[in-house]
Amino acid sequence: MLNMAEGLARLGALAASPVTARLGAAFADAGFELAIVGGPVRDALLGRVTHDLDYTTNARPDDILKIVKPMATATWDIGRAFGTIGAKVDGEQVEITTYRADSYDGATRKPTVAFGDDLESDLKRRDFTVNAMALRVPGPSLVDPGGGVEDLVTGILRTPIDARISFGDDPLRMLRAARFAAQLGFEVAPDTRAAITELRETIRIVSLERIQGELVRLLQTDAPGRGIRILVESGLMAEFLPEVPALRLEVDEHHHHKDVYEHSLTVLAQAIELENERHPDAAPDVTLRLAALLHDIGKPATRTLEPGGGVSFHHHDLKGARLARKRLQALRFDGDTIGSVTQLIEQHLRFFGYAEGAWTDSAVRRYVRDAGPELERLHILTRADVTTRNKRKAARLAGAYDDIERRIGELAAQEELDAIRPELDGNKIQEVLGIRPGREVGEAYRFLLDLRLDEGVLGADEAEERLRKWWSARA
Fold first, then answer.
1. How far apart are CA 414 and CA 82, in angstroms?
2. In the CATH hierarchy, which fold is given to the domain comprising 156-240?
3. Buried b vs exposed e over 27-63: b needs ≥16 C-beta within 10 Å?
4. Sequence ranges of the chain with CATH classification 1.10.3210
């Protein structure tokens, strides 16, 4: 809940910071306005941590440079065409942008850049009222033409102008609505949600890289499920990630199964909770969160209604991995992320065989080998995938996974399990067997790897003797 007295005190402290005070005085002496704008003002009112300060001014880029150069250790003007000048002042990086009065053609989200002279007009062209507040400096005084403070108090996200016009200008703002709703824990105003539904197809003019960027930012929030629901319910998610709304499978009175969509959102929430418990100081793990959201996307394509009312999803793990790879490639994710997510989806069911009966040491080694560097993420995903309301079953599965992690730890201590490899490498195999590089070296290597997995560490001498016996029997 926003406490106005405390929020205003934080705004005062923000305006009095050394860098802001210095910049404010310099712009005022030069006859120009200056204001802190957007997220820093919102976060100060909410008591959230503010990292970077963004400023806006009626000064043009050339004037901004003239004012900041004497006090800056470095300046850059890569954003000059859009009115933005960057500088490093007293060790802090700042960006100062000329008031904007852009226009859009509706065919692309690239505006025709035009500079403005009025702060309130600049604020009204921004995405949401809670981001359309400014703090004039020196002074300070709060400028809030759209009622952003009231929306912070009530926890509402809405646009400063008609949502259809705002989203028509820049459709990416529809995705930002979902992200900010999740980030701030706010509700999206009814007319704003209606505009998202109405204009959802316009997201197609936005580059896939931009869409991917907003999806990543949504997944980095503490509770992305709120934003995902907005995207799915409005139909916007179907435009770029249709596999998620497809999880809402129909359930008839004869064939009952778990709600896959709700299950997936629960798995995502539980994965984030476990991620924070196990790695409290780490950055949000977007790869893990993607895998949690998408781990069951193979179910719609593999659902079979069985006689007697049962439902099966045979090989949905493999199907889901293929679907995820294709979709993440389309969204321009990098190869490492795609590889990790698809591997986790493909392997997320592997553990449940362990729950039915303890594995041999060999099976545990293979589990670790197959997971490779994704083992810790697989631990979290597999635990998060237990959403049963049956407390006894949940306790049994949790106990089984505790057991497999304990065994992995014991074997790792004994055998350096995280670096499983045969005692002899390819060069040594060629030397021992007197063969040249080729298919036979690979076969010999796989023989030694299976030996390592089945029996643990043998030592180089024993491995060489076993290799010679295998080669002799093979010949």
1. 60
2. Hydrophobic Seed Protein (1.10.110)
3. beeeebbbbbbbbbbbbbbbeeebeebbbbbbbbbeb
4. 254-419
Output the pLDDT for position 87: 92
DSSP assignment of 352-363 equals: HHHHTSPPPHHH
In angstroms, the CA 130 to CA 141 distance is 16
Type of residue found at 396: R
Per CATH, domain 1-154 is 3.40.50.80: no
Residue 332's SS3 state is coil
Q: Which helix (H) or strand (E) holds 430?
A: helix 426-433
Query: What pLDDT, on the 0 to 100 scale, is given for residue 253?
Result: 45
Let me know: does 91 contact 119? Beta carbons within 8 Å: no
> Do the beta carbons of residue 265 and residue 229 sit within 8 Å?
yes
d(CA 233, CA 229) in angstroms, rounded, equals 6
Q: Report d(CA 42, CA 183) in Å as an integer.
A: 12
Q: Coil, helix or strand for 57? A: strand
Q: What is the mean pLDDT of residues 245-272?
A: 79
Give Cα 228 distance to the centre of its chain. 12
Question: Partners of 67 in the beta sheet?
Answer: none
CA distances from 25 to 19, 112, 135, 382 (A): 10, 32, 14, 57
Please name the residue ranges forming H helices in 113-162.
119-124, 148-154
Question: Kind of pairing, strands 141-143 and 92-98?
Answer: unpaired
* Residue 195 near residue 164 (C-beta atoms within 8 A): yes
Q: At what angle do helices 460-474 and 439-455 cross, to 10 degrees?
A: 130
CATH architecture of the domain covering 254-419: Orthogonal Bundle (1.10)
Centroid of chain to Cα 24: 36
Residues 6+ apart with CB under 8 A from 47: 3, 6, 7, 10
Answer for the pair 27, 119: CB distance below 8 angstroms, yes or no. no
Helix (H) or strand (E) holding 398: helix 391-415
Delimit the CATH 1.10.110.30 region(s) of the chain: 156-240
pLDDT digits (tens, 9 = 90+) for 77-116: 888 888 999 999 988 889 999 998 876 666 666 767 788 8
Candidate from 219-233, 347-361, 386-400 with smallest mean pLDDT: 347-361
Bridge partners for 100 per DSSP: 115
Write the DSSP symbol of residue 98.
E
Q: Within a 13 Å sphere around the CA of 447, how many CA atoms are in the beta-carbon half?
A: 20
Q: What are phi and psi of 421, to 5 degrees?
A: -160, 160
Q: How far is CA 53 from CA 20, 38, 83, 149, in A?
A: 9, 9, 16, 19
Range(s) of the chain covered by CATH 3.30.460.10: 1-154
